[in-house]
Design goal:
Diaminopimelate Epimerase, Chain A, domain 1; 2 domains; alpha+beta; 18 strands
Length: 279
């Protein structure tokens, strides 16, 4: 089976072209191929597929633990790059079907005609607790308290098609991600688990964030998470609607439009290598 390794700011996935390949058990394959010692090594598996909906192409994604995810902002940019660079789709903007709905992507091309970066319309965030979902008594999931085994935090929860908990801290580098990430991901207030982001605000236009992704652990970047951080910053009056987010793998530009309520995310998409997976 032919595969392609791609990443957006180091948030790396193995991509399989299902126009040419067949994957019988993607959850099992995701676990095996994502292993960083015995597999290719990645944050998960993404299938590039024909769309039955009113879209140009479809993505189906699985985390490194085999669980299926609704959406990945870095992943969807790479899907668009793959579909365009390999000639499956010529439309620009491109419409990509995801489990969180159809996303419109404006492709930024290099001198060689291949995709370098993309701006993704991430759609409207969901902020009602039952939509996210998060099991709290408050009517708004803004600066609510969560208690873990070791400490308590104020968190703001947002869904960008998948659930996110955003926690603002004074020093993001000092956060023990390996301990707190899984404690919050599996906290009983999150019936579908949650992606966790710790964020340090430098100014109303600039933040630094670190991520623990549901089903994958610590990752170098998270596009839906950065979108949720943008929304949470506005909701808590810590940032404006347009921010630059520094992630371990690089920078993303975010804007939460006041006019239509959509979040726009801009970042790179990079192909690393191709190979053959046995079986």
């Amino acid at each position: 089976m032919r595969f392609t390794k791609m990443h957006g700011l180091g948030n790396d996935y193995v991509y399989v072209d299902c126009f040419a390949e067949t994957v019988d058990d993607p959850a099992k394959l995701a676990i095996a191929i994502s292993d960083r010692h015995f597999g290719v090594g990645s944050d998960g598996l993404i299938l590039v597929m024909a769309s039955d909906a009113a879209a140009d192409v479809r993505m189906q994604m699985f985390n490194a633990d085999g669980s299926e995810a609704q959406m990945c902002g870095n992943g969807v940019r790479c899907v668009a790059k793959y579909a365009y660079d390999y000639g499956h789709v010529t439309a620009n903007p491109m419409r990509v079907e995801t489990a969180a709905g159809i996303k419109t992507i404006d492709l930024k091309l290099g001198a060689d005609g291949k995709v370098l970066a993309a701006t993704v319309d991430m759609g409207k965030p969901l902020t009602e607790p039952e939509q996210i979902p998060v099991l709290i008594r408050q009517t708004r999931a803004v600066d609510v308290t969560i208690k873990t085994h070791s400490r308590a935090f104020q968190m703001t929860c947002v869904s960008m098609g998948n659930p996110h908990a955003v926690i603002f801290v004074d020093d993001v580098a000092a956060v023990p991600m390996e301990q707190l990430g899984p404690e919050i991901e599996h906290h009983p207030v999150f019936p579908e688990r949650v992606n966790v982001h710790f964020v340090q605000v430098h100014s109303p236009e600039e933040v630094t964030m670190r991520t623990w992704e549901r089903g994958s652990g610590i990752t170098l970047a998270c596009g839906t998470g950065a979108s949720a951080v943008c929304v949470a910053g506005v909701q808590t009056h810590r940032t404006g609607r347009k921010i630059l987010a520094h992630l371990p793998g690089g920078d993303l530009k975010l804007q939460w439009n006041a006019e239509d309520g959509h979040v726009m995310m801009t970042g790179p998409a990079t192909e690393v290598f191709t190979g053959d997976w046995p079986g």
